[in-house]
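step=encode ok
step=design start
structure_in=
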């Protein structure tokens, strides 16, 4: 699935939700908008793009008054065919999806049980992680993925930076990377980035009571409007996007519980600093 399809899918899903909330059938929309029922259906299913003028007509039919949501949907329509910088790389479709969503998101809440989150990794640490997880990738392929991962981090320094909340299990701070300098520099990177006003880092201590994160890591990508957020679950050889509002809300609740179980911000940074200083 290419990155433009991600934008089309999100647009179609939201337009379908608005139509269903308005209790309109496709035939109702056809009679009120002048757009054929088949065209509206293809827009909703993301099998075709939508012109901004068509989206305007649909939003008027659905009596959408929220200017922020209207602006967001029009942006998705305008950018539906836009190529992102990442499309110059030979990336797995699900990874291209993630980068596209990150570029559009206003916030990311991530929980990592064993690794430092990708948006906070140093190049050396990223190289070690990518090589370990891929197992068979050639060195040039690993370096290309490191380059992509470093480029992704520009969302933290753009004019309207991504708001990042990261909960990292203590085990991730203790993983052994090749050479002591790699892990030492990585932990210093966490301390440096934690100074950004839009970045919050917490550590979930090893002795924390059982929590929802015991089921595995996850990432919530937020878009500033109810019903638009997406959850990403990543495994060694597969990934899954969760988009249904009720399911996303469940993960949001799990994240807040993890936040409560994690160390406060200052104590988290103190623990990271102590782990860094203990590396020989």
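sequence_out=
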């Amino acid at each position: 699935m290419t990155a433009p399809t991600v934008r089309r899918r999100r647009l179609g899903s939201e337009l379908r939700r608005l139509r269903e909330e308005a209790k309109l059938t496709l035939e109702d929309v056809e009679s009120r908008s002048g757009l054929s029922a088949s065209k509206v259906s293809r827009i909703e299913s993301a099998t075709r793009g939508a012109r901004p003028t068509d989206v305007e007509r649909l939003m008027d039919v659905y009596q959408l008054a929220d200017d922020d949501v209207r602006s967001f949907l029009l942006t998705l329509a305008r950018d539906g065919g836009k190529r992102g910088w990442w499309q110059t790389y030979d990336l797995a479709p699900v990874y291209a999806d993630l980068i596209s969503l990150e570029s559009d998101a206003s916030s990311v809440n991530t929980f990592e049980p064993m690794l430092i989150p990708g948006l906070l990794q140093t190049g050396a640490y990223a190289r070690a992680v990518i090589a370990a997880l891929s197992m068979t990738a050639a060195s040039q392929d690993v370096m290309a993925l490191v380059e992509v991962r470093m480029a992704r981090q520009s969302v933290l320094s753009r004019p309207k930076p991504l708001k990042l909340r990261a909960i990292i299990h203590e085990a991730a701070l203790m993983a052994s990377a090749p050479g002591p300098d790699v892990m030492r520099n990585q932990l210093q990177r966490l301390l440096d980035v934690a100074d950004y006003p839009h970045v919050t880092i917490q550590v979930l201590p090893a002795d924390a009571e059982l929590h929802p994160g015991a089921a595995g890591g996850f990432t919530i990508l937020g878009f500033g409007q109810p019903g638009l957020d997406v959850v990403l679950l990543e495994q060694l050889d597969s990934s899954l996007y969760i988009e249904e509002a009720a399911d996303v809300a469940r993960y949001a609740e799990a994240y807040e519980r993890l936040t409560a179980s994690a160390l406060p911000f200052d104590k988290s940074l103190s623990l990271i600093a102590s782990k860094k200083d203990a590396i020989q």
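step=design ok
step=annotate ok -> The CA atoms of residues 85 and 275 lie 36 Å apart.
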